[in-house]
Amino acid sequence: MKTMYGVYEAKWLKHYSSDHEILLVGEGDFSFSFSLAKAFGSAFNMVATSLDSYELVIKKYQRARTNLQTLSECGAQLLHGVDATRMKLHPDLQWRKFDRIIYNFPHAGFSGKEDNQLVIGKHRSLVRGFFENASHMLRPGGEVHVSHKTTGPFQNWRIEELASKSFLTLLECVEFKISDYPSYQNKRGDGSRPDDAFPLGKCSTFKFILSSTSKKSNIPHHILNNNHQQQFVNPCVPNDCVWIFKEYFDQACLMFGKDDYYLCHSVRVMLEKVFERCNITNPVNPMNDYLNHVKELRDLSNRRIVYLQNRLREIDHQFGL
Ligand SMILES: C[S@@+](CC[C@H](N)C(=O)[O-])C[C@H]1O[C@@H](n2cnc3c(N)ncnc32)[C@H](O)[C@@H]1O
Hints:
The protein is an alpha/beta fold. The protein folds into two domains: 14-225, Vaccinia Virus protein VP39 (Rossmann fold, 3-Layer(aba) Sandwich), CATH 3.40.50.150; 241-318, no CATH class. Helix content is 38%, strand content 16%. The protein contains nine helices and nine strands. Strand 6 (98-104), helix 4 and strand 7 (138-149) form a beta-alpha-beta unit. The model is unreliable at 214-239 and 260-264 (pLDDT under 50). S-adenosylmethionine (SAM) is lined by residues 25-28, 32, 51-52, 83-85, 104-108, 126, 186-189.
């Protein structure tokens, strides 16, 4: 949205912003992704995934086809057959990093009573595998969000403990209210009635960040500590390509689909910043990181082309061409 001063402002829905790169995992009928896209007025910043194939998703859920169509028209990247416990190796995801990775109501399927230890073990192993993968896919300052029921056998999943095994630490736990996400419909996802909602009862969104004591994490402490501000206050980060390129890529994403002076100006200013930072961090070498960013940029460009083609088709359609 453009303000009276010509500055673009991010749009927010609850914890999520149109400025975040968002990965959604284990979607049901894709109505949560749809809800975010509607609030943002676009979905270029989103990769929405399901474990099920496209065919199975539209067979299982009545509204899935429409939700997916809208998401695609809004620029989302849609992936099916994505296993949360292996996703960091997925060809379309292995180079990507995200500000928010969201898995709402993870559940490994109905294979017995929810208080059965074997069943709980299956759910825990799904969530554990998800955390392990997600922990490798975060941008600096990024968060992993799991919404989960907090009563009965569900509290025995002990998701904080599972997260800690992947060096993820609880940032906060806030009440999950479905009314915060218009159009979202929580789905059972399995069994004979996958399209039915399950009773939510008391539930929360658990937000995790990479622990600052993580041996795996190469994230500078000043970034972790400034998680909410998402600012990079200390320029002395050797060989940190993320630090060098972050604002440039953020700005490029934000400006996609926009025109006028601010587009050229702001992206150029950010490129100048990249240049300055390259000079500060000398030598900057990790070729892989550069390649990752270039791939990200290429991916965004491809999605933009699809979006523009869809828009042109819509306009043709409106004029009966
Ligand atoms: C209770 S449903 C919740 C669906 C959706 N997130 C929602 O909030 O409506 C659990 C979801 O987890 C998915 N799921 C189960 N195992 C998975 C795995 N290994 N990787 C990704 N998703 C998985 C199922 O396909 C199902 O969509």
